[in-house]
Design brief:
Number of strands: 5
CATH architecture: 3-Layer(aba) Sandwich
Distance between the termini: 12 Å
Number of helices: 4
CATH topology: Rossmann fold
Structural class: alpha/beta
Radius of gyration: 13 Å
CATH superfamily: Response regulator
CATH class: Alpha Beta
Shape: globular
Number of domains: 1
């Protein structure tokens, strides 16, 4: 599975790499990186954090969710996992993406509350 992982915390990147061992993970730290990667290739799973210290908190994962929503269906990730601890923004990301994804293709869970990354469960 090809996975795009957006987060600003190196510990989360390392932990996610451990959880998703055996999958192809592309790490993004900034909004512009994530949107460029989404434009270049289709991912099976896109994992989104919202609050990005690497952006001085001026840009956020919600922008990436909006970018996904504006993308043609053929370019959207098959599944999206929102893993932000910012409940307000996580809910907003979910609302932006929910019209485009079914219940099995869109998940909202705080980072650290999932234990594996598989084809069907975050």
């Amino acid at each position: 599975m090809r996975i795009l992982f957006l987060d600003d915390d190196p510990r989360r990147h390392a932990e996610f790499a451990r959880l998703a061992h055996g999958h192809s993970i592309v790490h993004a730290w900034r909004v512009d990186e994530a949107t460029a990667l989404l434009d270049e290739a289709r991912f099976d799973l896109c994992c989104l954090d919202n609050d990005l210290e690497t952006e001085s908190y001026e840009r956020e994962g919600l922008e990436v969710a909006r970018h996904i929503a504006a993308s043609p269906r053929s370019r959207r990730p098959r599944r999206v996992l929102i893993h932000s601890w910012n409940e307000t923004r996580a809910r907003q990301m979910y609302e932006v993406l929910s019209p485009l994804y079914g219940e099995r293709s869109l998940s909202q869970i705080r980072f650290g509350e999932f234990t594996s990354v598989g084809d069907e469960s975050p």
